[in-house]
Design a protein that fits this description.
By secondary structure, this protein is mostly beta strands. Helix content is about 15%, strand content about 40%. The chain is built from three helices and 36 strands. It has helices spanning about 1-25, 365-370, 495-535; strands spanning about 40, 50, 55-60, 65, 70-75, 80-90, 90-100, 110, 120, 120-125, 130, 135-140, 150-155, 175, 180-185, 190-200, 205-210, 225, 230-235, 245-255, 260-270, 275, 285-295, 300, 305-310, 325-330, 335-340, 350-360, 385-390, 395-400, 405, 410, 420-430, 445-450, 450-455, 475-490. Strands 20, 21, 23, 24, 25, 28, 29, 33 and 36 form a nine-stranded antiparallel sheet that branches. Strands 2-4-6-7-8 form a five-stranded antiparallel sheet, with no helix packed on it.
Length: about 550
């Protein structure tokens, strides 16, 4: 009986222990023991990564395929979950999940904490080079295994239409290596192109829409004089090589009434203006006009237009005939110019500049009249310098070359042996708004210089005129009016060398004659003395 009770107590102690041992996880070294299926949770990696199969949990050692959106590449094409011992607790192993990735050689390596989609191809935006006719892209491959057989090409981003037709870029280039540059040339300026780098058959790695830069425009093709308005008119230029931001006009006018008078106008007009009036002159005047289109790259080629306002009773337009100077002194280096004010009677007295140039080949009166003269350094003899700045309101005689100087001018002495051209110049500068651009209150007014000029009734009441206008709305004008004087400072003539020779010969002959006369006198006295002495001796 006692033995039975003892056996019962031992069983009561062993049963709970055996039950607890059966609930513990068997040690991996124990073979043949049944194990429950083990799983891993879906990793929290880059949201762009695509896992196949797409599940919340994965079995250990089950291969999972990775992929990324077009243009990106995962660091591994296949991954799988595994378990490794992290630590021991009370002599028992503690496991954790790890993910392994298969590389190109088929080896399984432990992944980083966060797996991300990577750019197969990298293009640094700071290295992109764009000109009016070419595009250059510098690239580097970050996944060498995926970059073989890359192709690059340029294509028009959209269809072209007249008058700005562009030819399609043909062909493509195969890229080699892990880095390099791809260029497209012979492109159309100010045109949008699509630059694409891809992998066959249709995987796009890089796409960039870019517009080539602007260049100067072509010259206007058609210019004509509108007989109804008297305006010079031209066809507007299309924005094929750049956005047309304005037009540049140069007008040269000569008058038959004053052959020494020259008027030059330089105008900057807005792109909406395609006509401009010519300056008023009498019969027999001649005009030479050049018109250029303007883009952000600068002015384009000039279209030339000429006109002679002849009538049957009007003389032919004369060539430039400058006025003359008087009292020219080569010893003092001065000349007197009879000056008359250029400003009209209704204008206030204005500052006139007196420009002086020693003309040489290639220098023209037109160039001196519209040029920016150099600071007056007479010792360097610049092409054109300011000799004086005059508040001229009435005729006066001006002594050129008297040596006076001031801020920005020097009336330097003239050099003998030089041909001079002097220009009395009046410069007028203004800005104005094209007619009809602004309307306000009861009148539409255009700003010209410092005055607001009313030129017609307006519409709508209470509207104001904005005096702070963008530059492209303003017309800028420069008008150069010049009266030219032409003269020569003749060098003083020195005696010719042969004259001194003749004078020397005559002086030498005179000395010889004097010497001969003295000798004759001496011999004559000697002859008279000898006979007298002979008589005395006898």
């Amino acid at each position: 009986m006692a033995l039975q009770l003892l056996a019962l107590r031992i069983l009561l102690v062993l049963v709970p222990l055996l039950a607890a041992q059966g609930q513990e996880e068997p040690h991996p070294s124990v073979q043949g023991m049944p194990r429950k299926p083990e799983i891993c949770q879906r990793p929290r990696w880059d949201s762009r990564l695509q896992l196949a199969p797409d599940q919340s949990n994965y079995k250990i050692n089950k291969e999972v395929m990775l992929s990324c959106p077009e243009g990106l590449q995962p660091p591994f094409t296949h991954v799988k979950c595994s378990r490794e011992v992290q630590s021991n607790s009370n002599g028992k192993p503690v496991y954790r999940e790890v993910w392994l990735g298969k590389d190109s050689s088929g080896q399984w390596n432990r992944t980083q904490n966060r797996v991300q989609c990577m750019e197969v191809l990298h293009v640094d935006p700071g290295t992109l080079e764009v000109s009016s006719t070419s595009i250059k892209v510098n690239w580097s491959c970050r996944v060498p295994e995926a970059c073989s057989h890359m192709r690059a090409m340029c294509r028009l981003a959209g269809p072209s239409s007249p008058p700005c037709e562009a030819e399609e870029v043909a062909g493509e280039e195969v890229l080699h290596g892990q880095e390099g540059a791809f260029s497209c040339s012979a492109l159309q300026p100010f045109t949008e192109y699509s630059v694409t780098i891809s992998l066959p058959p249709s995987t796009s790695l890089f796409t960039w829409l870019v517009r080539t830069t602007e260049t100067v425009p072509d010259k206007p093709e058609q210019l004509w004089l509108d007989p109804s308005t008297g305006n010079l008119t031209w066809e507007p230029l299309p924005s094929c090589k750049g956005e047309i931001i304005g037009y540049q006009l140069n007008i040269t006018a000569r008058s038959a009434q004053d052959r020494g008078l020259l008027e030059l106008e330089r105008l900057r007009l807005s792109s909406s203006v395609t006509a401009h009036p010519l300056p008023a002159h009498g019969p027999g005047s001649s005009y030479v006009v050049t018109v250029r289109g303007l883009t952000a790259a600068g002015p384009g080629a000039a279209a030339l237009w000429q006109l002679q306002t002849n009538r049957s009773d009007a003389p032919q337009p004369p060539a430039m005939s400058c006025r003359s100077a008087r009292d020219i002194s080569s010893s003092r280096g001065t000349a007197v110019l009879p000056l008359h004010p250029i400003a009209r009677h209704h204008e206030l007295p204005a500052k006139h500049q007196l420009l002086v140039a020693a003309l040489h080949n290639g220098t023209t009166v037109e160039g001196v009249c519209s040029a920016e003269p150099q600071p007056s350094d007479a010792s360097q003899q610049p092409g054109a310098y300011v000799a004086a700045v005059l508040n001229l309101s009435s005729p006066m005689d001006f002594v050129l070359g008297d040596g006076t100087q001031g801020h920005g001018y020097h009336n330097a002495a003239l050099r003998p042996g030089c041909n001079y051209t002097a220009l009395l110049r009046l410069v007028r500068r203004s800005q104005q708004v094209p007619r009809g651009v602004l309307l306000c209150g009861d009148a539409a007014r255009a700003f010209s210089g410092r005055e607001w000029e009313t030129f017609g009734p307006g519409v709508g009441a209470g509207a104001g005129v904005d005096r702070h206008l963008p530059p492209f709305l303003l017309q800028q004008a420069e008008k150069f009016t010049c009266i030219c004087y032409s003269f020569s400072v003749v060098a003083e003539q020195s005696p010719h060398p042969w004259l001194w020779t003749v004078i020397g010969v005559f002086v030498l002959l005179g000395i010889l004659l004097v010497f001969a006369g003295i000798k004759w006198l001496v011999l004559s006295r000697k002859r008279e003395f000898l006979p007298g002495k002979a008589k005395e001796d006898s």
